[in-house]
Amino acid sequence: MNRILFVDDEPAFLESLRILLRRQRSVWDMAFALGAQEALDKLAKAPFDVVVSDMRMPGMDGAELLRRVKELDPCAARLVLSGYADPAMFERAVPVAQQYLAKPCSAATLRSVLERVCELQRTLSNPAVREQVGRVDQLPALPESYRLVASALEKPGVHIDRVVEIVARDPAMSAKVLQLANSAYIRPGAAVTSVAEAVRLLGPDLVLRLPMMMHAFDGPVASREEAGFSLVELQQGSIATARLAARFAVTPEESELAFTAGLLHEIGRILLVREAPAGMAEVVRQSITSNRPASAIEHGLLGTTHAEVGAYLLGMWGLPLHVVEAVAYHHSIPADRRAELRLAVVVHAADTLLDQAIARLTGDHVAEDLDLAALEACGLTHLLPAWREMAEGEARAMRPARDQPTD
Q1: Whole-prediction pTM value?
Q2: For 252-280, what is each residue's pLDDT tens digit?
Q3: With b meaning 16 or more CB within 10 Å and e meaning fewer, what string describes 357-376?
C-alpha cells in the first residue's frame, strides 16, 4: 500500500480529508498531521511515498516543510494543497513541490492526482529513478535563454508570442512551464500539451519570472569535458527531434503532442548531466570504446536510464500520459504495446532517424537501430523513405551549429 501523509494546521480540514478519502483506505495507508512539526515527527518514524501539505501554516510553512522532506527522503513525492494564491508563496513552493492543487479540491480531482502519482511510482519503481528526480528543483537552462528572457523582461509590453518563442527553444524551461500549467493549482480543466498553450495560460509575467523563481543559473552546469557532450548540442537535437516528430504525426492533435514529447524526450539526460556528470562522461567514454549506443550503457553504470528519469520527472509534474510514455519509450518500444504507443513510436522514429543521419554526417558515434516492427504495428512503414529524407535535412541544418565551439 502506498503511504500518504496529509499536513494542515486546521483540524476540521484534516477531518474532511479523512471523510473525503474514506473509500481509499483499502488501497492507501493514510496519515494526517496537524502542522509541520507533527509531520516531521511522523516522517522520522517511517517513510511516506507521498506528502501533501498546506502552504500557510504557523511556525513552519508548507514550503519549508517540503524542503525538509526533500532532504530527508528524496524518493517521496511532494504535493501542495492550498487555498492561497499569493504569488510570493507560490514562488517559494516552485523549487520543492512537484504538483500543486487548489482548495477547495473535489474528491475526484484529489483521488485522480494521487492515483496517478502512486501508479507512476509503481510503474517506474526503480529507487535510483525516484531518488534522482526527488532531488531536482530545477533543470539547467542555457545562458542564452536567460539572456533572452532578461532582455524581454526589460521591455514594456513584450508580446506573448516572443515569450513562447524563447521558452519553446529551451527544453528545461519548456518542461517547467508545462509542469506549472498542468498543475491542478493552475489548470482546472483538460491537460495542457503545448508550450504556447502553457505560456498563455500562465501569463507572460509569471513565465518571464520563471528563471529567477527556479534559480536556474545558480547551480553548476557540467562542461562538455565533464559530461562528455555538449548541452548546447543536446538542446539543438531536442528542437530538431520535436520538429521531425510534429511532421511525422498524422493529425494536428498528434502533431502538437509529438512536438512537446520530442522537445522533452532528453530531459532526463539534461538532469543526469547536472546531477551525475562524471557518470555521464563515463557512459559516453564506454559508448565510444565499445562501439555501442550510450543508452545501452546507462543502466549498468547509473542504475537507471535517462529515459526512465525523464519520464518519471514529467509524470510527477503532471504532464499528459502520452507525453510521459513517449519519453519513457523513445529508445525501446515494449513489444506487447507497439500498436497502442503510437506517439512513442513517432518520437522514437524522429529521434533515431535524426541520430542515424547525424552519425552518417559526422562519423563520431554509433546510432541505434530503428524499431521497424513498431512502425509496422502502427501502419507507418510506408512513410519511412520520406521520414529519412526529412531527418537528413534536419541533420544537415544542425551541422553548422555542431561545428561551432560550444560550452
Answers
A1: 0.70
A2: 888 989 998 998 899 888 888 877 788 88
A3: bbbeeeeeeebbebbeebbe
Paired sense of beta strands 99-102 and 2-8, if any: unpaired
The 3-class secondary structure across the chain, one letter per residue, is CEEEEEEECCHHHHHHHHHHCHHHHHCEEEEEEECHHHHHHHHHHCCCCEEEECCCCCCCCHHHHHHHHHHHCCCCEEEEEECCCCHHHHHHHCCCCCEEEECCCCHHHHHHHHHHHHHHHHHCCCHHHHHHHHCCCCCCCCHHHHHHHHHHHHCCCCCHHHHHHHHHCCHHHHHHHHHHHCCCCCCCCCCCCCHHHHHHHHCHHHHHHHHHHHCCCCCCCCCHHHHCCCHHHHHHHHHHHHHHHHHHCCCHHHHHHHHHHHHHCCHHHHHHHHHCHHHHHHHHHHHHHHCCCHHHCHHHHHCCCHHHHHHHHHHHCCCCHHHHHHHHCCCCCCHHHCCCCHHHHHHHHHHHHHHHHHHHHHCCCCCCCCCHHHHHHCCCHHHHHHHHHHHHHHHHHHHHHHHCCCC
Residue ranges of the chain assigned to CATH 1.10.3210.10: 224-403
- When pLDDT is cut at 50, 70 and 90, the band that residue 348 belongs to is very high
- Which CATH architecture best describes the domain 224-403? Orthogonal Bundle (1.10)
At 205, is the pLDDT very low, low, confident or very high (cuts 50, 70, 90)?
Answer: low
User: Of 190, 105, 112, 177, which is closest to residue 141 (Cα–Cα)?
Assistant: 177
Which of 3.90.550.10, 3.60.20.10, 3.40.50.2300, 1.10.3520.10 would CATH assign to domain 2-123? 3.40.50.2300
Of 264, 247, 122, 65, the C-alpha closest to 182 is: 264
Cβ atoms of 154 and 147 closer than 8 Å: no
Residues of the chain with CATH 3.40.50.2300: 2-123
Tell me what the pLDDT averaged over the chain comes to.
Answer: 83
